[in-house]
TrEMBL record:
Root EC class: transferase
Gene field: thiM
Ligand binding (substrate): G188
Superkingdom to which the source organism belongs: Bacteria
Keywords of this entry: ATP-binding, Kinase, Magnesium, Metal-binding, Nucleotide-binding, Thiamine biosynthesis, Transferase
Any one GO biological process: thiamine diphosphate biosynthetic process
Pathway per the UniProt entry: Cofactor biosynthesis; thiamine diphosphate biosynthesis; 4-methyl-5-(2-phosphoethyl)-thiazole from 5-(2-hydroxyethyl)-4-methylthiazole: step 1/1
Name of the protein this chain belongs to: Hydroxyethylthiazole kinase
InterPro entries (UniProt xref): Hyethyz_kinase (IPR000417), Ribokinase-like (IPR029056)
GO MF: ATP binding; hydroxyethylthiazole kinase activity; magnesium ion binding
Organism: Staphylococcus argensis
Transmembrane segments: none
Catalytic function, reaction form: 5-(2-hydroxyethyl)-4-methylthiazole + ATP = 4-methyl-5-(2-phosphooxyethyl)-thiazole + ADP + H(+)
Annotated Pfam families: HK (PF02110)
UniProt similarity note: Belongs to the Thz kinase family.
Length: 264
């Protein structure tokens, strides 16, 4: 049976990204590297055409404004009406009342296929009293517990990123231990992961847990391979190698290197 990674590279799925200004170029290059076809579109006027053919839509609120928020909602509504999967990334949702209010509104009217964020961000979606300084995640949070509660509340797949990543879908929960600490030194790495997850969906609004685990593992194993190639040079060199490794990471790499544990 063909893996999701092989399917992605064979089909080159159109992955539409309404994402933040800081990461657009990096996101597009990362998607091209892994095998997808990126479209960075912010126009509701063309969302119907894109939603009919796209493999998935990423909504990333990193540089949200009132006007952009309205456009994101309109585009997400259109995607949902066309059965196009949606990955929602509530970047820094706990940093301001505006972001909290916007995400609450979004999730009341849109049901994403996947919600992806760090533990602090996902906790904020559950508890509006949570605060955070930005995109950083608190190390002392129980990501497994938070992911399970978010799954129960929103009835959609949850991916939490951190030192160990967590995937919850269809009542199953997995911890993933691959990755590199250098990902935290590159602006937009987490945003790119949201796009990579979207690229793996390929019109599937009900992906199984294995699909999401494969997407996160491919991303993280490529990062670990890139770290090994930097020879201590630093984040800039890592970023270059990471884009390269996304194009070369293989099913064999995933089978040999994947560190995944299903937890109860």
């Amino acid at each position: 049976m063909m893996s999701k990674l092989d399917q992605l590279r064979e089909n080159n799925p159109l992955t539409v990204c309404y994402t933040n200004d800081v990461v657009k170029n990096f996101t597009a290059n990362g998607l091209l590297s892994i095998g997808a076809s990126p479209a960075v579109s912010e126009a509701p006027e063309e969302s119907d055409a894109f939603a009919q053919v796209a493999g998935a839509l990423l909504i990333n609120i990193g540089t949200v404004t009132q006007a952009r928020g309205e456009d994101m909602l309109a585009i997400a509504h259109t995607a949902q009406s066309k059965d196009c999967p949606i990955v929602f990334d509530p970047v820094a949702v706990g940093a301001s009342k505006f972001r909290k209010s916007y995400c609450s509104k979004f999730l009341k009217v849109v049901r994403p296929t996947v919600i992806k964020g760090n533990a602090s961000e996902i906790l904020t979606l559950l508890d509006s009293e949570t605060t955070m300084k930005g995109t950083d995640s608190a190390d002392d949070l129980d990501a497994v517990d938070i992911a399970k509660k978010a799954y129960d509340k929103f009835h959609t797949a949850i991916v939490i990123t951190g030192e160990k990543d967590v995937v919850v879908q269809e009542g199953r929960c997995f911890e993933l231990a691959n990755g590199s600490p250098l990902l935290a030194k590159v602006t937009g790495a987490g945003c790119l992961l949201g796009a990579v997850i979207a690229s793996f969906l390929q019109r599937d609004r009900h992906p199984d847990a294995e699909c999401l685990v494969e997407a996160v593992s491919a991303f993280n194993i490529a990062a670990k391979q890139a770290e090994a190639l930097t020879n201590g040079a630093g984040p800039g060199t890592f970023k270059m190698h990471f884009i390269d490794r996304l194009s070369h990471v293989s099913n064999k790499d995933i089978e040999q290197c994947q560190q995944v544990t299903e937890v109860s």
